[in-house]
Amino acid sequence: MMAHLLEAANVVEMFGGLKAISDFNIYLDPGEMVGLIGPNGAGKSTLLKTLRGILPPLAGQVTLMGLPIQLLSPRDFAQRAAYLRQGGEIAFDYTALDVVLAGRYPYLSWWQQETESDRAIAAACMAYTGVSELADKPLHAMSGGRRQRVLLAKVLAQQTPVLFLDEPATGLDIIYQEEIFRFCRELCAAGK
């Protein structure tokens, strides 16, 4: 039997001294899109951080492509799953292109520069999210909607089969919210 792309079995997680997740179970296969809906403080971000491996589960197990996530190195995990965190602020003066190229880091050794292929992937992701003209603009000088689309391009540049998006439409106008969810539907249709 083939392993699921992502599986969580009996996951329990604490947050702030309270049980935020209790006996959570799910399995996902390529092309599926799942949305977590609930009030603020319900544990949605905690669950995503647990599935992403940022928070180790108190109990239970999470597997990614058949491997327990705690056995994956950060680099191996980043080649399998990309994570767009909530409120993705960048403090330094990085340009949009610098940020999107960072999505290619899991495929480079620490001493390597990005290749032409990496630059082509970054350019294609920026074109897809409609931010090509912002390549040389610092991220901190952009509106929230543009910044969010640049950060989505970075996640896409990782070229992973799994995408974790924590409130990807936060701070976006309704038109851009619809666009983000259209991107998600298209990516799922492509097998992500």
Average pLDDT figure: 89
Fraction of residues in β-strands? 15-25%
Shape: globular
Parts with pLDDT < 50 across at least 5 consecutive residues: none
Question: What is the H/E order?
Answer: EEHEEHEHHHEH
Main β-sheet, spatial strand arrangement: 2-1-3-4
* Beta-strand segment tally: 6
End-to-end separation in angstroms reads 20 Å
Strand count, sense and barrel status of the largest sheet are:
4 strands, antiparallel
Count helical runs. 6
Helical percentage = 25-40%
Report the structural category: alpha+beta
Q: How much is the radius of gyration in Å? A: 17 Å
Question: Would you mind describing this structure in some detail?
Answer:
Helices cover 34% and strands 19% of the residues. It is built from six helices and six strands; from the N terminus they run E-E-H-E-E-H-E-H-H-H-E-H. The strands form two sheets. A four-stranded antiparallel β-sheet has the order 2-1-3-4, covered by helices on one side. Strands 5-6 form a two-stranded parallel sheet. Helix 4 (116-128) packs across helix 5 (144-157). The two termini are 20 Å apart. 29% of the residues are buried.
